[in-house]
Amino acid sequence: MNSTRTLKSIIAILLVGLSISVILNIQNQIGEDLCVDYSQYNPSTLETGLIGDMVSTYKNNQLNAMNASMGHSETNSLTFDLETIDKFLFHIKKGVEANSKDFKNEKLGLRIYYAAYPQDMSQYTDLNDLMNNTTTQQYAKKLTMVMIPIRENDKNEIVDFNPFEFDTYEDGLPKYQKPEDLTGTNSKDTSPEALKPVMSITVSNTQNKVAQNHGNLFPPYPDTGAAF
């Protein structure tokens, strides 16, 4: 009787150990797939003078033109903390790893859309945290950007996609078009298509589970410490 109990105990311990080993191996495999070592590549650089010329060209042309036409001081830089970027890229890769037929050979990237905050930001729950900021109105109509995950599909086309929705991998996200009766107005589109969340990252004080929205615009925030 005692030998039977001992044998059962040994088997139970082995099974628990095996389970832990499998879990750790899976976690290690995910870590290896998502965290690639690029130490053999040199970091990308540009000459200081080139950056200075490029920033000055923007300020003297596009920025001056926007300031004159918009009637307010437009954005001249955006900032993100590195952790926010890391989290966003991590979840893109996690989604692709779970849905892709050939994860290791995926060609992924980000498309950066030039954008501007809506004039009436109070209509958008994704901007709730920003709405609690006393400088809210300083964001209205300000230039910003939105980054969307992209991949190269089987037809060698670059498409916007949602890493967690396999249906978007080949044909991309559905093309959004604001209803004609709302075009040119400040009214929010409340259709199901418009309310569907898309994995993205932009600049505001808001952060939720789907979109990573965290960072600052300069102005309204001071750009103390900016080198260009």
Structure description:
The chain is α+β, with helices and mostly antiparallel strands and 228 residues long. Helices cover 38% and strands 14% of the residues. The chain has helices spanning 2-34, 48-70, 82-99, 128-131, 168-171, 192-195, and strands spanning 77-79, 108-116, 143-152, 158-160, 201-202, 212-213, 216-218. Strands 2, 3, 4, 5 and 6 form a five-stranded mixed sheet that branches. A two-stranded antiparallel ribbon has the order 1-7. The protein is globular.
Report a brief summary of the structure.
With 228 residues, the protein is α+β, with helices and mostly antiparallel strands.
Summarize the helices and strands and which ones pair or pack:
Blueprint: H1 2-34, H2 48-70, E1 77-79, H3 82-99, E2 108-116, H4 128-131, E3 143-152, E4 158-160, H5 168-171, H6 192-195, E5 201-202, E6 212-213, E7 216-218
Parallel strand pairs: 5-6
Antiparallel strand pairs: 1-7, 2-3, 3-4, 3-5
